[in-house]
Design a protein that fits this description.
Blueprint: H1 4-10, H2 14-37, H3 44-66, H4 74-82, H5 92-105, H6 108-120, H7 132-149
Helix pairs in contact: 2-4, 3-5
Amino acid sequence: MLTTASCFKQLEIDDFLCALAFLTDVTCHLNTLNMQLQGRNQNVAVLIGHVDGFRKKLELFATCIRNNDVTHFPSCRELTEEIQHADFCSYSDIIESLSTEFASRFSDFDLLRENVRLFCSPVEVTIAEQAPSLQMEICDLQLHAGKETS
């Protein structure tokens, strides 16, 4: 059974404090994504963009943490000022696991990605890769867009 005294003792253990700081920062990043996904007046393209952006951040986080670089982790950064030997390298596995989980849970977005790209920037898509029923319209769009930029 946890007592108040045992909880306070945990706060004196460096490894526990590192884990707590890391958890705090990762939860903050996840909360930011959560809030972005709940915003009003968003379409599927915007939502996919938020998730894809976060997945890129996870790659960055994993690389940084592997090198014990806590630039993007404010609580961890603050803790390194107090604990000189704070080591966060072992947490890269957690970020990589989170990245794998995101890839799995949002794999359906991969099926929508080409349609979203067509929706967001029809001028940049390859015409031959699009549905035949859209190819003529895309040709016209790209032709008119080319005239405007020239």
